[in-house]
């Protein structure tokens, strides 16, 4: 193989070894560089440089010719598929056998070799993995080392370009090669992107499957909890019956046994109809639903933000207030149709009605099992939902249509359910009556409830004994603030008649919230006042809104208010200054925030959401998808907890979303 | 694909250990979701190596690529053939190479590889025959001696 020494390959190899000599001391950061240099060297010989290629192929064909010479030999042995050494190795060495087993490709795989439609070959990809600047580097380095070295690139430098024509040609070739590499690299990127896209779509489908599984599990979980509850109840009853029997009839034991049996069967039927419930005396009625569910539904956290969980016709008139205790928990809604309904969000079923108010309920709050409602009849009522005679288990007949669609809801609403009216019978705790005009806002926390009324007062109530603890007169406080502070130009504390007259529909007290001794209230003059409940004084007034404040919420850092002036303002609680503000196109009627987003109802068919973490504004709701078959009514009230959003609309529809 | 395959001679120049280490690091960094190009780069680096175990690993990677990447199969056939040729598994090498030639009769690289394989087999075969015949002659000689000895008796 003497002639191979002149072949470009040999030259190439020499170059490589020389290079490695030069780079032998190279730092680790240079590894890639060195590697790249080598690769491009190879590339230029094999592909980029046609002349080199021709040489090479010529050499190769010569090589082959030479190899062919002992043709007889070959012919003699061509029938042997393998050489003896190979045979020995493949039969005797275990590692060889293992390797063969690992790499063996069965014929059926080999049979399936599709047409090669790749834009670049893997080898080209290999060459192109080298960054562009490596070439420059290489050139510079080569120039630097020119003196002491055999020329690295045979063709390039051997005959120094004598004529400018040649020089240009070479330049052109180089550029061509670069261009080619560039396109290969481009194709690599695009194919990599395609690969990643495929992976993403695969993962998405997997995610969907798992999400479905999660949904099923949660459904089962609820069922299981219900079963557990029932079992507990039965156990309790059984024990009670036994006790009763033991005290009443200590002698005759066998008959009581039968008694218990009949009692139990009666009980089982009693789960179906409420009329029997009523006959059964107190111990049953006192039974509490567990205040907290053992399991916490998390499914909605994995839904894509803005996807609908449920939507149903809750009322036939505009929703005035709604609240829920926890995701997939219990929701209470009130509407202008003068009803207050309690809903099981998990099954999406109306559990019952809260009856007692003489007029429609303007505001309400749900906390665990306690519901507080403030009504136009000037009273506030408190309800304990744990007293409700309601089993979350579906009756067997209803189980079929308990699918997540509005139809099922409407059905359950339309069908006269004696359960509905009577199931909440034992819920009312007590009523707080001291206001002389409609109650427009309330908030309770722990044993303290605060309410705001159209009689222009705020009242603080003690929920333990149901008494009014103090009354705060907003106008008086405003007047006092203006009298003490009006020395300068500052008339902040004063009751202001806003530029646009507060329209009649605006509530005097739009919203309030208390925490310990702190109370914040937003009023129709656009002011937000911070009260100290210990002194009964306003200790700070936040001026900024130009229309009635309709909603308000604070956490430990910020106070967020929404107003009919279409803006939402975020205040810094400590300094009382504006932290952020933004506006929508229409008056804001309701707003709430959780750890991540501020959701607002802005008289539009969609819920407005402001994502605090990434500063994004987006809309959520049916109005989005342009399905204008029935134009959805505007959203009136929103509540959000842990990304679980409920909204009530003007036409009585309640939507549940993730966000 | 034509000229986009390296010739067999190109597989004879091993990379430097640190260069191979770069490829290996990249390969390991991408973990279970390793891209085909990275896998190829590492495999090709391994095939070029002069260590037999590395070559084996390279062939294993190529068979992996072959299994998983349907539209890279044709290319992979060549590397499988080349790798097996370097390993001395001429039977396998010929199997893959012939298959490739069936699909791409015009491939210069495959044709040259076939020549190389044939040559290697022939050389080894000749050696084998030489050894065998040597053994046979020796055996004949011994046999003859024994035979002669027996006859003399």
TrEMBL record, chain A:
Main localization category = mitochondrion
Task: List the SUPFAM superfamilies hit by this protein, alphabetically.
Answer: WD40 repeat-like
Query: Where can this protein be found?
Result: Mitochondrion outer membrane
Residues covered by region (Disordered): 131-164
Origin, by domain of life?
A: Eukaryota
Its family?
A: Belongs to the WD repeat MDV1/CAF4 family.
State the name under which the record lists this protein.
Answer: Mitochondrial division protein 1
Automatic annotation (TrEMBL), chain B:
Would the keyword Nuclease turn up in this protein's UniProt record? no
What are the TM regions of this chain, as residue ranges? 126-147
Matching SUPFAM superfamilies: TPR-like
Q: Where is the protein situated, by its record's location annotation?
A: Mitochondrion outer membrane
Q: Provide the alphabetized UniProt keywords.
A: Membrane, Mitochondrion, Mitochondrion outer membrane, TPR repeat, Transmembrane, Transmembrane helix
Question: How does the entry describe its membrane topology?
Answer: Single-pass membrane protein
Q: What is known of its domains?
A: The C-terminus is required for mitochondrial localization, while the N-terminus is necessary for mitochondrial fission.
Q: What does this protein do, in the record's words?
A: Has a role in mitochondrial fission. Has a role in outer membrane fission but not matrix separation.
Q: Which PANTHER family match?
A: MITOCHONDRIAL FISSION 1 PROTEIN, TETRATRICOPEPTIDE REPEAT PROTEIN 11 TPR REPEAT PROTEIN 11
| Protein's recorded name | Mitochondrial fission 1 protein
